[in-house]
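Hey, can you fold this one?
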Amino acid sequence: MPAAHRLHPRRAPTPGTCRNHKTMRLRLIAVGTRPPPWVRQAYEEYSRRLGQQLRLELIEIEPGPRSPGKSPAKAMAAEARKILSRVREQEFVVALDERGGELTTRALSDWLSRRMQAGRDLAFLIGGPDGFAPEVLSRADLTLSLSRLTLPHALVRVVLAEQLYRALSILSHHPYHRD
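Sure. Predicted structure:
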């Protein structure tokens, strides 16, 4: 096996290996407080791999109350208030929504590089089962789709954390990502 393939892909890229990039904070503000244990385990694994250069903090929001046969508008409004109360004024906000724009992994890596150079902290938002209220989408600086498929919201946490780790590994020339 070639030496490059024997490297430890579980190690986080070394802090400072992404030149001209500032350490920034990433926060994932997600509606939902009871994901399955495998989701927590996978999310924590990729979050840990990000290391110190990109610290990813999870903030869980209690879902708004829903009743069968009733409009979800009140629940979405309650979730919007909770989400927006956790967003910091200076953060660049990314709403994860199936109707958002799509990026390839390489394009995400380039985008992340520009965000790191700017040095502005990021907040990624995951809505509730009915999506986001309009006021949340209007606060977002970017609306991004991780897939045109409808994904379980708990799985979105894992996919996002893994893609951020993959993007960082591209920036630091770590062998985790292969084209």
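The domain at 22-171 is CATH 3.40.1280.10 (Alpha/beta knot). Let me know if you want another pass with a different chain boundary.
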